[in-house]
Amino acid sequence: MNLPNKLTVLRILLVPVLIICMLARFPYHNWVALAVFVVASLTDLADGKIARKYGMVTDFGKFMDPLADKLLVTSALICLVGLGKIASWIVIVIVAREFTISGFRLIAANNNIVIAANYWGKFKTTFQMIAIILLIMDIPALQVVTTIAVYIALALTIISLATYIYENRQLISQMK
Fold first, then answer.
1. Is residue 176 pLDDT above 70, yes or no?
2. Which of the four CATH numbers 3.10.450.120, 1.20.120.1760, 2.30.180.10, 2.60.40.420 does domain 3-174 have?
């Protein structure tokens, strides 16, 4: 269990803490939730950089890192739906994209093909996290900025899905 993998496990362990902080009503709960989400998001940035820089890439990390990211982002978004801060249809589109890409990766793995993350996926993740941070902060003066960030994240979600499908269209033709 190297450092990048420990950071991935930490991100997974922070998900229930995030959910509790987002949904519980105690003084400054949204700011505590924000801190938890930011720390968890930073572990995502750090684990990948450390793993690549120091040659610590593992099969565990390849599998669990994207799963941890999906757990973090979808948990936060679902809580935000419950709190009335984001429309459910937007979250459905985002979650559907994640399931679709995961399905593609499973099919690819069965055909000994690795589908690497591309820059659209990285932009998508970055904007989703920015949008989630703004939504958790819930600052009325930033309402327009928050709305724009949500729709940019949504657009990048759709663009990254279309890009993955287009770049891996040969995989679709190989399915039986």
1. no
2. 1.20.120.1760
